From TrEMBL:
One of its GO terms (cellular component) is plant-type cell wall. It catalyses: Hydrolysis of terminal, non-reducing alpha-D-galactose residues in alpha-D-galactosides, including galactose oligosaccharides, galactomannans and galactolipids. The keyword DNA-binding does not apply. Transmembrane segments: none annotated. It comes from the Eukaryota. Pfam families: Melibiase_2 (PF16499), Melibiase_C (PF17801). This is Alpha-galactosidase. PROSITE patterns: ALPHA_GALACTOSIDASE. Keywords: Disulfide bond, Glycosidase, Hydrolase, Signal. Residues 316-392 form the Alpha galactosidase C-terminal domain. One of its GO terms (biological process) is polysaccharide catabolic process. Residues 1-24 form the signal peptide.
Length: 395
């Protein structure tokens, strides 16, 4: 789902914990890409506390929470239109009548962490709620008062809306100001920012953020998903433990792509160490959607401790090979047919970082089958808009 007037605005998400403050690359957070759920892609502005509680319930009941999906993130439109008489942010009294403290307690009671959206300008992208520009310290204190900062909890913050009444202050200055305010509250903050890659945040956001958007908003289409994957690729050298490139949230399960296309979407996001933030209604997802989002083999690639972003390493028209190094000398590999017809794709060891004489076991992450003693290259045939994903383990 595209944001209204998205080209005009930047934003952020915050996750707070009780450890001592530090710069993003030193705060011990985000050592692997964040995993969770976000309200925007499916619900947009039509959110309320009943929906969020239902999502939190479903994250646990479906087993997603046990797989590492730990954040439940409120995107835009959760707050009242104006600040209260003391200048504080306030929850929308109609859609969140119990207040944010009660919601945080409920989500935390499920063993999950609550994320909240804010804005680096005077208003948010929707223009429905206030931004944090000029109120950074006060808003950080408000989040603490709501119980977002709890011992052993690391909640989440996303600061978006790049040019929303920004008073001509640079994005680096505005985002850094919010990050400092949150960390000065006495807790570490997982800080995810978005200005759609306009000012190349991969080159500067790592000093105070744990992830940064590199692309425009994803849409629920094959074309948008593949375009975001391509645009994110060039920033791979800037990603690693503590700070991740973000090509936007997952559209898996929202109905705009086929099962095979969704499988490719999830495979590539995992390979490139993108945040795995679910964007569908997990309380009513299909068995096929659950199977994709729950694939532990693929999730393990995303969460690999080495933290190397995979890249496009070979291309023949719309037939592509993407690969990346994993811990213990292994290689993650995706053969991706983006073309209109069935085709075979061959990955040569020389293109994916293996010695040409290396002998590997090839684990197909979607069928869970292992082919032993493969040497030199790997070939497979795929339907249009389909992929194969492997982990190659040298013998």
């Amino acid at each position: 789902m595209a944001r209204t007037a998205a080209p005009l605005f930047p934003f952020f998400f915050l996750l707070l914990s009780s450890t001592s403050p530090a710069a993003a690359q030193k705060n011990r957070l985000g050592r692997t890409p964040q995993m969770g759920w976000n309200s925007w892609n499916h619900f947009g502005c039509k959110i309320d506390e009943v929906i969020i509680r239902k999502i939190a319930d479903a994250m646990v009941d479906t087993g997603l929470a046990k797989l590492g999906y730990e954040y439940v993130n409120l995107d835009d439109c959760w707050a009242a239109h104006d600040r209260d008489s003391q200048g504080n942010l306030a929850a929308n009294g109609t859609t969140f009548p119990s207040g944010m403290r009660a919601l945080a307690d409920y989500v935390h009671g499920k063993g999950l962490k609550l994320g909240v959206y804010g804005d680096a300008g005077l208003r948010t992208c929707s223009r429905i709620q206030p931004g944090s520009l000029g109120y950074e310290d006060q808003d950080a204190r408000t989040l603490a008062a709501w119980g977002f900062q709890r011992r052993r909890k690391t909640d989440f913050s996303k600061l978006l809306c790049y040019n929303c009444n920004n008073q001509n202050i640079s994005p680096l200055t505005r985002y850094n100001r919010m990050s400092e305010a949150l960390m000065n509250s006495g807790r570490d903050v997982f800080f995810s920012l978005c200005e759609w890659g306009v000012d190349d945040p991969a080159t500067w956001a790592g000093s105070f953020a744990n992830s940064w958007r590199t692309t425009e908003d994803i849409k629920n289409t094959w074309e948008s998903m593949t375009d975001n994957a391509d645009k994110n690729d060039k920033w791979a050298p800037y990603a690693g433990p503590g700070g991740w490139n973000d090509p936007d949230m997952l559209e898996v399960g929202n109905g705009g792509m086929t099962i095979e296309e969704n499988r490719c979407h999830f495979s590539i996001w995992a390979l490139v160490k993108a945040p795995l933030i679910i964007g569908c209604d997990v309380s009513s997802m299909s068995p096929e959607t659950k199977d994709i989002l729950s694939n532990q083999n693929v999730i393990a690639v995303n969460q690999d401790k080495l933290g190397v972003q995979g890249r496009k390493v070979q291309q023949d028209g719309e037939l592509e090979v993407w690969a990346g190094r994993l811990s213990r000398g292994r290689v993650a590999l995706v053969l991706w047919n983006r073309g209109p017809a069935e085709a075979s794709i061959t990955a040569s060891w020389s293109n994916i970082g293996l010695n040409q004489s290396a002998v590997v076991d090839a684990h197909d992450l979607w069928t869970d089958e292992v082919t032993s003693s493969v040497q030199g290259n790997l070939t497979n045939k795929m339907d249009s808009h389909a992929c194969k994903m492997y982990v190659l383990t040298p013998k």
